[in-house]
């Protein structure tokens, strides 16, 4: 069963890489669909909202507030989440492909089984974040392990343990 799960993950990642642009600049427009609001998104307040399965493609979400939001299954593709607040958000089974999280607050967030490939995590706050079974680039895991601390208040999992530090 574990082997099947791994094969399914590899197949999914392959489909992601083939389906989405390899560079955030390659997509010419910004789109938000399936339950997310349209229009200006910089600094927008999504705190506490249910945004399950929303898609943010090439969106500029700088300083947006997603604190305690339900982001299960959400797709961020080529999005800018610089200085965004995702404190306590549930990003389980979400996808963050080519996303810039520079300066974002991911503290106490749940990111179980999230696919977070080719994303930037400079100066992020991850105290108490749960990355259990998340798929991250190896270099990113090493960088996050250097600052990992705390225990997630919802899952009881230590950040360092969830990253495999």
From TrEMBL:
It comes from Chroogloeocystis siderophila 5.2 s.c.1. The keyword RNA-binding does not apply. Pfam families: Pentapeptide. The keyword Acyltransferase does not apply. It comes from the Bacteria. Keywords: Signal. Residues 1-26 form the signal peptide. This is Low-complexity protein.
